[in-house]
Amino acid sequence: MKKVFSIYRYNPDVDAKPYMKDYTLELEDGSDIMVLDALILLKEQDPTLSFRRSCREGVCGSDGVNMNGKNGLACITPLSHLQGEKIVLRPLPGLPVIRDLIIDMSQFYTQYEKIKPYLINDGKEQPAREHLQSIEERDKLDGLYECILCACCSTACPSFWWNPDKFIGPSGLLHAYRFLIDSRDTATDERLSELDDAFSVFRCHGIMNCVSVCPKGLNPTKAIGHIKSMLLNRAV
Amino acid sequence: MVNNAATLGRSGVHDFIIIRVAGINLALYAIFLLGFFLTNDVNYLSWKSLFSNLGMQVFTIITLLSLLAHVWIGMWQVLTDYVKPVGLRFILQLALNAAAFSYVIAGLVILWRV
Ligand code: SF4
Ligand code: SF4
Ligand code: FES
Fold it and tell me: H helices of chain A, where?
């Protein structure tokens, strides 16, 4: 069984501009492997091919790539899920390319930093031992804490493409909501004030690209909706 | 917090509320007019009597102001997405706001004369 790949190549030190290069992989008939495994095999053919990866099982978030036009993690996407004669692999869209499939995620992390991704507690009501949560309080964090910061969602979001310096993006906002509803966090109001401008949250127009690509099955649009409601409740 | 002075509202939430309330009002006005056309024999007299009604005049003025607000915020959002050169964006925004503003003025003048 032959599989043909068309892969985005760009080495700014050598190439004047990016180009697509074709590769062929000979696979055992009826076998199915993950896109990441295919990339590793292709790297044996061509050691200059560059991509990020670490855990190779969908927990570290380092191998987000655009496969046949859809963002996802290469390590948990089987080749059989990708239709077409050629499998087209490109870096995640919208952020600067460092080399081949490797993008510069600084803007993504800057947005993540902005939402202060850590518990803030003013210490006014110190518990005797530790901050306990009820089962219900803890349940509110489900669907939020699982985000692995792979950036598949934010780089699929048109609002983030156009304003990556001002719009927090789906991933950052998912985390923002995770801390907004944490019963142990006392900075809810300050956090909301930080978000209440025309860009940070409100650039989300509910297109839901983020939801359709998240490899962890999370729903940033829903979290963003909750943030908008919190902002509205505070305003009226 | 991203600071911005070029949009209409004071904050993101303020913009959000204005654009939606204005949008709802525009929709109501459009539905009302459609209903009027469907249920009435529209001629000069019925049209004139509709617009001589004080309630209708107020509704129309509010709708024109809604249009201004909706254009102002909505087009500012679209332009800040797609038009990156600041000078060009400023000119486009100015032209669009001026157009919407002239609709309001024109509407006021017309209603005055009914
Ligand atoms: S729902 Fe919002 S955050 Fe998600 S892709 Fe659409 S605009 Fe972006
Ligand atoms: S929300 Fe999903 S797609 Fe977005 S960064 Fe987190 S895990 Fe990745
Ligand atoms: S290599 Fe870690 S998520 Fe794919």
Answer: 35-45, 106-114, 135-139, 158-162, 169-180, 188-195, 209-213, 220-235
For residues A177 and A226, the answer to whether their CB atoms sit within 8 Å is yes
What is the DSSP secondary structure assignment for residue A66, as one 8-state letter?
E
Q: Complex ipTM, two decimals?
A: 0.86
Reported as a single tens digit per residue, the pLDDT across A193-236 is 999 999 999 999 999 999 999 999 999 999 999 999 999 999 88
Q: Would the pTM of this model clear 0.90, i.e. be above it?
A: yes
Ligand 1 mean position, distance from CA B69 (Å): 24
Smallest-distance ligand from the CA of A160: 1
**Pick among 1.10.8.10, 1.20.1300.10, 3.40.50.2000, 3.30.565.10: CATH of B9-113:** 1.20.1300.10
Ligand 1 centroid to Cα of residue B25, in Å, is 26
- Residue of A194, A203, A232 lying closest to B13 (CB–CB): A232
Asked if A58 and A48 count as a contact pair (C-beta separation under 8 A), the reply is: no
Strand order in the sheet with A19-26: A19-26, A2-9, A86-90, A64-67, A70-73
Instruction: Count other C-beta atoms under 10 Å from residue A143's C-beta.
Output: 18
pLDDT per position as a tens digit, A70-98:
999 999 999 999 988 899 999 999 999 99
